[in-house]
Structures are given as structure tokens and as C-alpha cells.
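Quick one, T. Sequence first:
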Amino acid sequence: MAEEWLLEKHSQPFDDSSPTETITYRPVDHASRPLRFCVLYPHLKDAYWLSVNYGMVEEAHRLGVGFELFEAGGYPNQSRQAEQIESCGEGGFDAMIIGTVSYDGLTPLIRKVAKNIPVIAVVNDIHPDGITAKASVSWRNMAADAGRFLAERHPKGSPPVKVAWFPGPENAGWVSFVEDGFQEAIRDSSAEIVVTRYGDTGREEQVLLIEEVLDEFEDIDYFVGNGPMAEAAVSITRAHGLTDRIGVISTYMTHGVFRGIWRGRILAAPNDFPVLQGRLAIEQAVRAVEGQLDIPHAGPMVVVMTPKTIGRYGVSNSLTPASFIPYFEVSGK
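C-alpha cells:
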């Protein structure tokens, strides 16, 4: 028997701004036949999508289904993901699961595929046309959680603090929601964004952006933004002797962010449990194919982890084991 999951269900499916209610969700016990899914990711350059992959692998094994995985290589590669969507539609798969590189830039292709097989969205927000189900949390709310943490440290009227903001790739669909959520949350605080740097969520790119900011600004108080940035900021601030002067906050959880919080090097990060999102997407795909889909849009309950609270939560639905390597194919049994 499958374990039960504590999820947030949206009152208006595919609308991340709609109210949610907490539900106890019991996944199906097993697929009725060995289904085969096509899975698309933006990339596998950071531990976040590796964790999603781990969740998918675990759930595929449990349910007796298979998948083939294709990754676009980064958020700028919309044309590559477009080609992969077309291949999925022609590949004889039972369903397509997509972590999109664009909110609506691929919608016409997705609608085309959806005429023949269910399309499940995972993690990244996406235009609802053609989508059958969605396993995700609100990225606006995630970033707002990070912003509220900062605002509580520096309420309006307290001495001002300067923030370097690293939201992620400028044209990625989820980044606009991250920006809206964070900026709204700090509006009535003493925190001010003095510099914004966009870039793909690979560690190398984020290192360059951090170093650029340090070269241009001498009085930054916080680095806030995507997970790979926060990971890189820990080592860079240490190398520059700035660990005690510049605080680091991530807008989501990765292995490196988890370690940084555990060691007190990162102040906080919302945890949206990417392993569980991966598991849910596979389970939703089975339900969609077999006509059992009754909750089309749900995601894990988000919690903000800090050095004081991180010990309360396990890592089984958050992070992959250290030995895990990505699976690009799982055979259904």
C-alpha cells in the first residue's frame, strides 16, 4: 500500500493564485498495465531537477511504469524543447510530463500533443491550454516566503539593508512569478533591491554573476535568489572574507542549500519538496491515462527551513541520496 501524502489542492486547477486546501492524498497502488511516459526537463544542471528525477524514478518503479527522459540543456533552449515535444507526440508514449522552459512559448505544440495523450506539467508554471494535470507549488508564494523572512528581520523603519537579487533566467516562465512574490513581500520592509542579475541556473553562470556584483558594489548586505546562486555564494563570501557581513537566502531548496542551512551559512530557504513533486507527476500521469484523475492540480506543502528549524524535517521527499545519478530511462514492469 502506498504512503499517504500531505498536499495542497488548488480550488481553481492550473491557477497558482487560487486558494488551496490541505488534503491527505492517497496515490494509486499500481498501474493496471506497463505504461510508458515521455518526460521533459529544462536541464539537469542543478540538484533541484536531480531531486525531481529521483522522485519520478522511485514512483515509476513502485507503480510499474516506465519513462524516457529528455532535457533541454537550459532555459534559453526553447527550440530544443520544442523539438523534444514534437518527438514525444510522435513516439507512441501514453502521456507526456513536462517541466517547461517557457510559460506559454510552447503552448501550440503542447495543445497538439494533448489531442492524443495526456500532458502533465511538473514544477514550472505553464499556460493551462492542453494541460491535463499539474504537480507544482506556487513560485510566487515560494519567493514571497523568502521575502517575508527578510522583511521580518528588517521591518519598515529599521536601518536599511541592500539586497543583490538573483531571480534566475530572465525569460523563464517561473521567474516573473518569483520576482512578483519577492518584491511584494519586501515592499513594507527596510530591504532594498539595489542590483538584479539574471542568468541560467547553472553554478558556473551564477558564480560569474556574484563576482560581477562584488566588483561593482561594496556594501551589499544580502544575496537572495535561486538555489545555485545561494550555493555558490557560500564559498564566494567565505573566500572574500564576507561570511559575517553578507547574508544568503535561497528561494528554493537544493542539496547545497540544505547543507548551507544546516551549517548556518545560508539563513533560510522555502522547501517545496521536489522529490515529492516528481513522484506526484508520475502518479498523476497514471491516473490520467487510466481515467482516475480526480485532483488535477496539487503540490506539497511548502515550509521555510532555517538553521533553527531544519532538524524537524527529513530529506526523503526533498533531496536525492548522495549516490543517486540521473535516470534517462526506466522500464515499466
